[in-house]
Write the structure tokens for this entry.
Amino acid sequence: MHTMTASTAPTPTDPTRPHSRGAQDDFLLQPPDPARRVPCRIDPVDLRRLDLLALLTAAGIAPSAGDRAAIARLSELPGSVHAALHRWLEQAYGFCR
């Protein structure tokens, strides 16, 4: 004769206690300490290039492979030219940053 045993229903787990062997090694990392960061400067040309790519993407303009050289050259222009280019694209495509 087969007897029915009570099934073990899942119970809420204690968040302070690990619930499996793998969970013992899993923990949240502390936020980074700004004083211990490695100093790193990004070249303004690279920042303008990335910013221009982000702006074009936000405007729905997918640069083609041949546009990389043009984007690189535009990024070498002074910041004032880059700001004007951003303003024109934002006005033409009606979106804000």
